[in-house]
Amino acid sequence: MLQAAAREGLFSGPAAAGLEEMDALAAKDLSAFLRRPFDASRPLGAAAAQSERDRERVYLLLDALVSRAAMLAAGVLSAAVLKSGHGALASRPVCVAVDGTTWREVPGLALRAGAALERHLGEERGRHVRIVLPERAPLMGAAVAALAG
Q1: Is residue 47 a contact partner of residue 10, using CB atoms and an 8 Å limit?
Q2: 140: Cβ contacts below 8 Å, ≥ 6 apart
Q3: Within 13 Å and on the Cβ side, how many CA atoms surround 104?
Q4: CA dist., res. 146 & res. 139, Å (int)
Q5: Which residues, including other chains, have CB under 8 Å from residue 98's CB and lie 6 or more apart?
Q6: Nearest-CA neighbor of 77 among 64, 95, 100, 102?
């Protein structure tokens, strides 16, 4: 996305060149830039270091990407909740266990996805959800599978 924006002339020459040289954008790089956009020791920070305008544009594009990812995550989770048929009672919400460093570490992702879930499930469909972040989720899942099988 950033490289496409660079090819379209959204960034200055130095920033465009720096972005074009980058490999695929990893979630850890996105998170690091959104947390510390002035850190030129990281690839995205270095690419946008010469211009406040470039840094702001990179930031806004990545922030929009996080918003889009949150909406997609909320859509997937909403579909699962609706398919389950549960969550109609506030006293018995559907428990959604979310695992992964992306959910935990990407600034704004969990907050935006949670807000979208509340809006789409709670306000529009009358469903109640509780998101939990279990520790050692893969180990617990394997234990449950072993006990069930």
Answers
A1: no
A2: 134
A3: 9
A4: 11
A5: 110, 131, 132, 133
A6: 95
**Residue 70: exposure state from Cβ atoms within 10 A (0-12, 13-18, ≥19):** buried
Please name each of the domains of the chain with its CATH number.
Answer: 2-148 (3.40.367.20)
pTM score: 0.85
- In a structure prediction context, what are the per-residue pLDDT tens digits for the chain, which is 149 residues long? 999 999 999 999 999 999 998 888 888 999 999 999 999 999 899 999 989 999 999 999 999 999 999 999 999 999 999 999 999 999 999 998 888 888 889 999 999 999 999 999 999 999 999 998 887 777 777 887 888 87
CA angle 22, 24, 28 (to 5 degrees): 100
